[in-house]
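haha ok so turns out i had the wrong file open the whole time. this is the CORRECT one, sorry everyone. sequence first:
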Amino acid sequence: MHALQIGADVGEDLLAFGDKPGLANSVSHLKSLTTKNAGLVPGSLHQALEVYFLQCRRRKNAARSEKRTIARVLGLHATPLSAKSLADTGTVRMVTRDRSAKTSYKRGTLLVDRGNEDLVGSGDTALSVPVDDSWYVIEPDESIIFVDSKGSVTLAVLRGKCGQRPDLLTYVNSIIDEAVNDRKGVRPTHGGELVQFGWNAGPRHARVFGLVNNLTNKKKLSMTTRQQKDSRALGILALSWNLLVASLPAEVSTSCIEAIGEAGLPAMTVKGNDLDFGYTLDLPGGPLSFSTAERAPSEAYMSQNYESPIHTDQLYAPYAMNWVTLHAIMDPEQCQLHGGRSSGGNYVDVSLKVVVKCATDTVMVFLSLVCSSTL
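then structure:
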């Protein structure tokens, strides 16, 4: 027996058994060899391996239990409910409201919460919202679904879908922090940060379909570090997608999934990973691998303090989905939030005349080809 070393974690130690060092290429292989050659193996090695494999079983069982808990509290395995069925639960309101066929609000116009007009820079043209009493303001604790007169969902806002697992929100926010600090944004003229991840078609002057390559310090990072960062981003976006599909009205998710299938776009992935399913959450308590779970669609965005003027999202899918994982004012005095001023970060559907007040842990879906803004 050569080069046998057993420490606190046998799985990370160098193990070799037999006539040549390195013959045992894994701990499980070593256990097999020691079983076959029991008469040549000291009892201390048998004991160490038994303790190690007992620890392995306990870790696997704990991880399996934790994954089941996450799936249960987030409803990831539940059958998505239709808008009407969600309303029937009594936790979500459903309101019929048609959007304006025409709007006088021009694209590129900045929006500001009513009462915060003095925060607009000199020379900037801005629209104060809500404009008048005909507008609907969704409060931070309000879950609501808007449908038009034909019964089609036009906007859905659901609060507190991850409320039982604040640690997941903390983890997701830490990866978003990492992403906006490590990656180049795609809207440099807008306020805040908006970072793309997954596949894209390249810049307008050079259309090449491929994976986004936006790490700003990639030359200083090893390939292993880059892959770890990509894997963590892939994990939280896959979690977000599965949460959104499980939480939002079924007719919304179904129409988006159908559009994705018709477009023939691949699932989100990262360099060095050829699979189109499965993801890992590298949580502080230990990594959890959802090896058979669906990944997010081909592209997604992570944002922080992002704001945009009135615009339309030109998407191939009928809806855009998002999950607000944090809304907090770090310094109210510096932000001049006195006298009931809005804290900002709100979403505005201009043609529907609705203001969605921002709040932590909000899942939302809106039609993609409508005038909207984030302020």
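Residues 162 and 168 are 8 Å apart (CA to CA).
again sry for the mixup
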